[in-house]
């Protein structure tokens, strides 16, 4: 597996989102390369020639890993995404109410970005739309842009927490929003390029059988990992060295652990769960639960190191 190669990921990782971009490439350039579960776009699961996959909702399924009957799509992940949306609305409201907390606006925007990824994940991983369709490519491209923007927002929250720049001011918010838009627009364009084959510079390889895009791999895999590591490093310094606290650090460690476990669920549990459930569910719903839990734990960590509200009365009442 070469750097930027998606062939193994799309074959062995059920419901791997970015494979939606490569299916269309093969479907239009050389359909003979689509075999097995991917041969029929009307029922094809997320992935390219996957070993095991969840058929498109509403289609008749039959096979060694599929059982028989009508597919419900990736129903487990659809339900988990819907519940996660409600959880994130509660966290966003909670962040909004903490008027005096450092980085309140930046943290709220981070939660909003994660909230926005969930409806897209519900659709792009849910086996709800036909593989190779322009609508699925477009939604997947936007989803990729939101993921890249989210990890910039995560890193910016750590930078704001250093208080080198005052939170909530133009000095903090202007670069925050400008770079967020740049990450979103740049990654979305690259994903569209891969999915629609506009160019061969940022888009897919000129060989349709080669599922490879280094820019897409960097923006959706390498960049999130780098941003998460930098965030954890900066927050560790702030909590232990600046605030001289230990208890909040456990929240950050737990959040990091949940994030790592979510990625392991994608890449290690996916095929095991898919085959064990006869292609009814896969590891994506476990990954979504763990990712949402990781974001929720970040919120708890932020609460533990910030003030709730200002004292509105400068002259406190004393008993007479």
Automatic annotation (TrEMBL):
The keyword Transmembrane helix applies. Keywords: Membrane, Transmembrane, Transmembrane helix. The chain crosses the membrane at residues 75-95, 107-124, 136-161, 173-196, 216-243, 250-269, 281-302. InterPro entries: Chs7. GO terms for cellular component: endoplasmic reticulum membrane. GO terms for molecular function: unfolded protein binding. Coiled coil: none annotated. Pfam families: Chs7. GO terms for biological process: protein folding. This is Uncharacterized protein. It comes from Gymnopus androsaceus JB14.
